Amino acid sequence: xxxxxxxxxxxxxxxxxxxxxxxxxxxxxxxxxxxxxxxxxxxxxxxxxxxxxxxxxxxxxxxxxxxxxxxxxxxxxxxxxxxxxxxxxxxxxxxxxxxxxxxxxxxxxxxxxxxxxxxxxxxxxxxxxxxxxxxxxxxxxxxxxxxxxxxxxxxxxxxxxxxxxxxxxxxxxxxxxxxxxxxxxxxxxxxxxxxxxxxxxxxxxxxxxxxxxxxxxxxxxxxxxxxxxxxxxxxxxxxxxxxxxxxxxxxxxxxxxxxxxxxxxxxxxxxxxxxxxxxxxxxxxxxxxxxxxxxxxxxxxxxxxxxxxxxxxxxxxxxxxxxxxxxxxxxxxxxxxxxxxxxxxxxxxxxxxxxxxxxxxxxxxxxxxxxxxxxxxxxxxxxxxxxxxxxxxxxxxxxxxxxxxxxxxxxxxxxxxxxxxxxxxxxxxxxxxxxxxxxxxxxxxxxxxxxxxxxxx
Amino acid sequence: xxxxxxxxxxxxxxxxxxxxxxxxxxxxxxxxxxxxxxxxxxxxxxxxxxxxxxxxxxxxxxxxxxxxxxxxxxxxxxxxxxxxxxxxxxxxxxxxxxxxxxxxxxxxxxxxxxxxxxxxxxxxxxxxxxxxxxxxxxxxxxxxxxxxxxxxxxxxxxxxxxxxxxxxxxxxxxxxxxxxxxxxxxxxxxxxxxxxxxxxxxxxxxxxxxxxxxxxxxxxxx
Lengths: 457, 222
What we know:
heterodimer; A: alpha+beta; 6-stranded mixed β-sheet; 15 helices; 22 strands; B: mainly alpha; 9 helices; 0% strand
């Protein structure tokens, strides 16, 4: 089923029908000139790649956004409380809500950081929640919480800025909410937790897939774009090396590196992109890291299963947003169900990300299925299974002017500073192959802007 | 204190050098092609010999293809690619339009690599116009940012370097020395005034190419 065939899209389509296709080429050319890239590594080679996009946006009504906003705020608040708890008293484990073994066996759980306090008790500063809209029942379903280093916010933002220039009629005639203040809000969130000093965006470097985004967000938010080699730690404080041999104290770091690469003294010794001893400064409370170290334990695909319980436990509320029906191979009963119904389920390796390690049971050969069964039996903590969700397609405009439906999800971003701000936009990712369900950018998927409409009042 | 990392400062400086190099080399390729056409078929060999390279070509058009696309490190494409690479690394520090123009120029050369038939003197003259526009973006940027002097220093150092290296002209270099001193002083109050007080071109080349390194040393804190 195709979401963009609903009446919500009628006004958009009637304006689109009046547009000279040459102007669409102008937009394409504009995007190319701006080098809005999402790079890939393929077969060990770096490929500078334009991030494919489509001009038909996802359109979200004001009521629908209000619902998503509340649900995401609730979810982020609970995940933040969970992390505060897991890295301190671990009450949720002691109260038997989540099995201790399940948490402790997460590769992303870092016991050495238990007892480390963070600025303003915020750990989930920047998040990207992946959702799909189920065509059965028309409800939104959360597929993943990304609260380590979620990427993608700059792409719909850049597309929005260029679309406004090339097609102002959409913004003149449709009540679309503005989204241009995201960088300022990011800056506010950084300032809120800053422990004294400048704000820095720490990038793995030029050859990271999202370097465009790092560069863009640094410029727009006013943070200094720095690589690991630009920073150093002295007396448990982080400094930026500056031209001429001076140094500037750093108070907040929006890091775009995974935990393992962040500090070669604490994690992978061979990391060339990290900052030696940065974790010491973090432990001493002398720098805010956004997001905090060890967040991976909360967005582990297995822990995802427990998020609704976290909301009930910490907040005493029912979850607003639903999870996809999920089975944990860790639990014997669930494992039995998974093994018996492998053909109808999606199996996910909890250690993988970016669309890797996702297998549709229906697409496996018999030997592949047998191998997967054996893997699940051998390492049950490594796998979850979910019911296949028939999520909506959204149309994409083809060169010949026709609209073709593609599967599309939605990543919604939020910033946790003085309060939790849910951005009235989002990265709508679509599968390049109309028959595919895999929308991830790292697997060649494209993107769309997401237009949230203003309240009719 | 200038809040810019040494790495970014160096990338800005080199971006300025590469853009200037693209401009100077484009002018030279145009004038050399003109001479190869009907005055001296070996003029292209002489040009690259000043850079220590032995380049052979079969025809004026072949010279043009090599100079624009094919020669490793010294083709206009290679130079523009280096300018663009430094622009990508320093994008947060650049005026938006300046970055877009550099990237657009690179894309134009990438397209020419796929279809060399578009390359002509007229085409190269449009490159000069685009380079003028890039410098214009820098000069006319409303934000007089702290980063701009690094680019301008790279530009002027490259110009002096090429004046000496390619045109054997110390006189032209002397005219630009004051500009170097003004920019270097912006980057470091401890900059020691640079003068050309010898006719030994190698010594001058060494001195002019050492200015940036000297400025970046800790003793030159601004």
